[in-house]
Amino acid sequence: MTVPWSGAMDLHVEGVRKTYGRGSAAREVLTETSVTVRSQQFVSIVGPSGCGKSTLLMMMAGLLRPSGGQIRLGERVVDGPPVGLSVVFQDYSRSLFPWMTVRRNLAMAAAAYKLPKAELRQRVEHALVSVGLPGSADMYPWQMSGGMQQRVAIARALVVEPTVMLMDEPFAAVDAQTRADLEDLVLRVRHEYKITVAFVTHDIDEAVYMGDRIIVMAAGPGRVLAELNVDLPRPRDQVETKLDPQFAELRSEVFRLVMRPGGVKSTVG
Ligand SMILES: Nc1ncnc2c1ncn2[C@@H]1O[C@H](COP(=O)(O)OP(=O)(O)OP(=O)(O)O)[C@@H](O)[C@H]1O
């Protein structure tokens, strides 16, 4: 049931708008927005609080309907959660079921795929190895640190062998060291599983470090302000990449864009 990878599986956001509320309470939070996330590309999305990043991501995930325009994954219009698409949220403590073992949490994510038992078991084990948690299948989330729980959330996204992974500020709740580890983990698994990634973050350094491209959004109403290519060599390295003059240039450019009037809370430090 998993969608096989194909070069045609680009994610297209085409003239999408979103209005919340009706009548006099209606508010357009995202205006005419078009973005293409190429197959196997890593696209970072940054912008001020409230500019509609999560709204855009939820529409990409098929969890929210656009008020106008359309979203396509390959040739298919996204009108519900597509097969082969996973979402990782910031709040792992609310996205994992605490009363279920790690194995059951992962298996739940693949329930709709109706995999044979042996294959499901093998995928769960493989996903846990990929996130550096082999042998943890029988633990409960509450027995784990925050960083470990977010690894489980990532493993859960991997169990469906996704072609696309959408991540909404996935590391905002963990400490700096864990955050760096998880960044590198995501870069590694995205390469291993050949996944297309759209990654929302408030952290400009993180956006540059992770991305092949950065989409900078503006608020009032939300829209795409700029798109920048990141040509930093891969594999990225937490020390070497950040010492690259190109990194510093891009970081400043994105920072300037998001700090324009109507701008942003950022975590550039
Ligand atoms: N279900 C909803 N009903 C009404 N308004 C909403 C709803 N969800 C979000 N909004 C509003 O839409 C705007 C965009 O919200 P969204 O969460 O997409 O922005 P964001 O850029 O992800 O913000 P942040 O960076 O703070 O997470 C905000 O003003 C928010 O209050």
UniProtKB/TrEMBL annotation:
KW Transmembrane helix (keyword) present: no
Organism: Dactylosporangium salmoneum
Record keywords: ATP-binding, Nucleotide-binding, Transport
Domain named ABC transporter: residues: 11-244
Name used for this protein in its record: ABC transporter ATP-binding protein
Pfam families membership: ABC_tran
GO terms, molecular function: ATP binding
Endpoints of the signal sequence: none
PANTHER family: ALIPHATIC SULFONATES IMPORT ATP-BINDING PROTEIN SSUB (PTHR42788:SF13), TAURINE IMPORT ATP-BINDING PROTEIN-RELATED (PTHR42788)
UniProt keyword Transport present: yes
